[in-house]
From TrEMBL:
Source domain of life: Eukaryota
Pfam families: ADH_N
Keywords associated with the record: Metal-binding, Oxidoreductase, Zinc
Organism whose genome encodes this protein: Aspergillus oryzae (strain ATCC 42149 / RIB 40) (Yellow koji mold)
The protein's name: DNA, SC102
Domain Enoyl reductase (ER): 49-430
Cofactors, names only: Zn(2+)
Length: 448
């Protein structure tokens, strides 16, 4: 949190740039004049400081810019990357910011320039907020939109910016998120996809992020027919990346997890029986993930996919270096991937890394020709129509990930449960007072 607050102060001094064509930093509807004057109140999940979220009441959002759409939320969820916000490791969260970057719902009202979506449409939102018209958007690189995030810290750290994102701090534009009953969606025509009647919310919701992020990880890293793929992290992204790797023609997929996440190896295998697994917390004496992988795949896998994150150190060196602010992310998994893959192997990094890391094995990368690809935040809008078709044809089933259903009111308890990596909690559907009863094949409501 210290880093987060420091970044806020620096940004206030340095100031925003002026590249955005939407109103940014509308991170809760109590601020300014961003709420409706009707007096109607909504419930929203807000960040209140390190490891603390609260449901608070605030005004219902209104159309601020011409392209805005106001969505009544019927489905939301929590994501592994929300935990980075919860911990305060992503810079520039402010107390009271509304969280949540994955949601679906019904269009309530639209701004004057909105053409494609209309009141009453069932829609899912993409987590990156794109304008649809800048150079990057025209190439469908919507997560790099140049007009929805004017944060100067992002620009200073990365030499460029990500697009604005829902519920993901002022570092990504400061947009209120969808762990709430209503949400403002800028450029609604670009950032909302209509859901057909045969796709229930419980399946459509995950087009927001996880289905597209996992797909992007696999295709962007170039998984092709005959490849052997190793995946670090058995959460929802790793699970779907395993499914997509097989559908892209991989002959073998090996999933790596362990410790508190070890149960996921059995969970994912129950959905994808031909999957192979390595439990890193249960390795034979003297063995490493690299040596284990070389044993079961002579020469090493062709492709390694990072679906975990750099926030969690395995050894003491990185633990202390992060604690002391000498790095923001650990390079342990990256180095395992570099040494595990075959020469000229490909590595895709989709798990979240925020800043700098130490002890990166640049020598091995250079000497053995490793193709090291940062997958970036996924350009969801590039893939979501195709993925919606795959859901309709029953070639993918998002419900394979979904283990729980909880109420929005239970969001603080859900963050705590997710933080504790509660056994058996893979992906959650969060209902609001506007949700329909659970769709066929989706879990019943649990009290937390
Ligand atoms: Zn997410
Ligand atoms: Zn754009």
């Amino acid at each position: 949190m210290a880093a987060s607050q420091a970044a806020n102060i620096v940004e206030k001094v340095v100031g925003h740039n002026d590249n955005a064509t939407v109103t940014t930093d509308v991170s809760n509807y109590n601020k300014g004049a961003y709420g409706q004057e009707t007096g109607e109140k909504i419930k929203a999940t807000t960040w209140q400081g390190k490891n603390s979220v609260q449901i608070v009441e605030m005004p219902k959002p209104r159309v601020v810019d011409e392209g805005d759409v106001i969505v009544k939320v019927t489905g939301s969820t929590i994501c592994g990357s929300d935990l980075h916000l919860y911990h305060g490791v992503i810079p520039q969260l402010e107390k009271g910011d509304v969280l949540g970057h994955e949601f679906c719902g019904v269009v309530e009202s639209v701004g004057p320039t909105v053409k494609k979506v209309k009141a009453g449409d069932r829609v899912v939102a993409a987590f990156p907020i794109a304008c649809g018209e800048c150079r990057n958007c025209k190439e469908q690189l919507t997560s790099a939109c140049e007009r929805t995030n004017e944060n100067s810290i992002t620009n200073a750290m990365y030499g460029k910016r990500t697009a604005g994102m829902f519920g993901y701090s002022h570092f990504t534009g400061g947009f209120a998120g969808g762990q709430a009953e209503y949400v403002r969606v800028p450029y609604g025509d670009v950032n909302l996809l209509q859901l057909p009647a045969d796709v229930p919310d419980e399946k459509g919701l995950y087009l927001s992020d996880v289905l597209a992020t996992a797909y992007h990880c696999v295709v962007d890293t170039g998984v092709k027919k005959g490849d052997v793929v190793a995946i670090w992290g058995g959460g929802p992204i790793g699970q779907m990346a395993a499914e997509y790797s097989f559908s892209q023609g991989a002959t073998r997929v090996i999933l790596i997890d362990g410790g508190e996440g070890a149960w996921r190896l059995d969970f994912v295998t129950s959905k994808i029986p031909k999957l192979e697994t390595i439990d890193f917390s249960n390795l034979p004496r003297g063995e490493s993930i690299t040596s284990q992988l070389k044993k079961i795949v002579p020469g090493g896998p062709d492709v390694a996919l990072e679906c975990a994150a750099g926030e969690y150190a395995k050894g003491w060196a990185h633990y202390f270096e992060m604690l002391l602010g000498m790095e923001t992310d650990t390079s342990e998994i990256l180095n395992e991937m570099i040494t595990a893959v075959r020469p000229f192997g490909r590595i895709g990094v989709t798990g979240v890394y925020a800043g700098y890391t130490n002890h990166f094995n640049i020598g091995a990368l250079m000497q053995t020709g490793i193709r090291f690809i940062g997958n970036g935040q996924a350009p969801v809008q590039k893939y979501w129509e195709h993925l919606l078709e795959l859901i309709r044809r029953q070639e993918i089933n998002p419900l394979d990930m979904v283990t729980h259903r909880v109420s929005l009111e239970n969001m603080p308890e859900l963050y705590a449960a997710f933080e504790g990596r509660d056994k058996g909690m893979q992906k959650v559907y969060v209902q609001t007072r506007f949700s329909s009863p659970p769709a066929e094949g989706s879990p019943q409501l649990t009290e937390l």
